[in-house]
């Protein structure tokens, strides 16, 4: 057993071959990372899940499995599905808030338009009354 | 082996005891449900995850494990972490949209206030000018 064994081989007390499927994704300096996926999926299933994708995709597989395992350990009933549920609730809240603000902006725009028309009408009215006054003989004549 | 075996015991070709941990959550009429969690976690790990929570929580454990397994089979690289990522992007988009609409509403409200003040000023101006006209001798006198 070499001192360069990955976290998986170290924990499983076995020799770590140079082409070990876990070696690049479960370094020995982060034993918790492997420990978490091992507790939830089992080492053999993690190995299978890594092997079934292309090499350049394996780091993402290891990261996402670790994240899911972490969530399941912190929240044994819902795991990361609980997070999905919370995010859906947040999206619903934001969509309701957005709809409310959009309704408010339509209302304000509508009011502005009406007030603009009223103000224009008032100006026309005032202009007409000033015209009348100019053509009316003042009382002192 | 009884014909009332659950999907797990049926698939694992074993007797299904009356207190089988899988029986209430993996009915024989839905073999895919067990097949998915078995492929990702392995039957033994699913059993452990069910056993470590209280009985009333087990249906939620089975549902969330099935959902995660389903996501991992459909998306072998990211699993349901890909969904979490998409939901975060959607929240970011909604927050940006909300901030934009809130900025727009502040602008419209500000403009309405300014226009209101201008319209009030215009009315005062027009009223003053109409007073002047009334006290000025018309050109034809």
TrEMBL record, chains A, B:
* Sections of the chain in a coiled coil: 84-111
Q: Which residues form the LOB domain?
A: 4-105
Mind listing the UniProt keywords for this protein, alphabetically?
Answer: Coiled coil
InterPro entries named among the record's database cross-references: LOB
Determine if Coiled coil is one of this entry's keywords. yes
Which family is it part of?
Belongs to the LOB domain-containing protein family.
The protein depicted here goes by the name LOB domain-containing protein
Q: Which organism is it from?
A: Solanum tuberosum (Potato)
């Amino acid at each position: 057993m070499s001192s360069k064994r990955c976290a998986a081989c170290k924990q499983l007390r076995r020799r770590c071959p140079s082409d070990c499927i876990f070696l690049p994704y479960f370094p020995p300096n982060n034993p918790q990372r492997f420990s978490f996926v091992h507790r939830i999926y089992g080492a053999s299933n993690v190995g299978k899940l890594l092997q079934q994708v292309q090499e350049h995709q394996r780091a993402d597989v290891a990261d996402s499995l670790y994240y899911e395992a972490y969530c399941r350990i912190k929240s044994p009933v819902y795991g990361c599905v609980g997070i999905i549920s919370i995010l859906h609730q947040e999206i619903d809240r934001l969509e309701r808030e957005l709809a409310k603000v959009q309704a408010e902006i339509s209302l304000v725009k509508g009011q502005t338009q009406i007030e603009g028309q009223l103000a224009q009408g008032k100006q026309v009215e005032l202009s007409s009354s000033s015209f009348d006054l100019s053509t009316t003989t003042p009382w002192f004549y």
